[in-house]
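Comment thread on ticket #2218

A.B. wrote:
> Attaching the input chain for the structure job we discussed in standup.
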Amino acid sequence: MTTHPTGPSTTGTSVPTQPERRRWWHTFFPPGGPVPLLPPPPPPVPSTVTFRHDVPHPILVPARGDAFDFRLHAVYTWTAQNMAYEELRLRAERYLTWAAGIVRERAVDLARQYEPHRSHDLERALNDRLAGQRWPREGSQPYFWVQVGVSPDERVRERLRPYWEARIKLECDHELQKIRAQQADELTRRWCAVLQSLEDDPVTAHAARLTGEQFAEVFHRYVQERRETVPDLLELLREAVRGHGDLGMGPSEYTEAWDAAIRTYERRHGLAERVN
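C.D. wrote:
> Ran it. Output below, let me know if you need it in another format.
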């Protein structure tokens, strides 16, 4: 029996089968599931962020005489660079005591210059003092500026109430009297125009009775009084004309003008026959 020598064994690279390739692909992309999405990038931090801190608790400072206090209502506006809004808010709340101390320090000496009921004057002066200032004054850290509202002590408010009630009543009464005066003036002017037109026109004088008995009676009395004064005026004018004649001045433009006035009054009031 002949034995054939065996050659050296050769190891070739095995090619993966199709199931193996499928398992390798599924390790990266699971079958049947959505393709995973990358998480979104964090939102960019704004370059400048602002937080308005409206503090409900007032700061008390003494008024002149130290018997009453003013109540300061501070509103802080914080500004920061490259900082999240929530972080700035927490910082403002953390430093509230420090910020209130700054406001009180700048308000105490000024408040003692004003009477307890002059809160409005103090508010204007204090905001003028605080305008254009910031704290911290320098550096790139977050800073704040402040505006202040001032109200008087509650005891002062109670004492001021009767004064303002009386003042409001006086101003309202004054305004009411002005309205009444304006209406009376307008009504008087209109009635004067009506009476004048009725007096000048003989036809409408009789028509006045159509408006009512009371008006007709008042109008008749008005016309009668006006007519009674005219003869006295005419007599004065005649005396003036006769006086110039007694002095030997003769006809002149002056006497002719007075004579024309007399004749006009006589014709207008129907007195030409009565006085002649």
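A.B. wrote:
> Thanks. Noting for the ticket: The longest strand covers residues 69-81.
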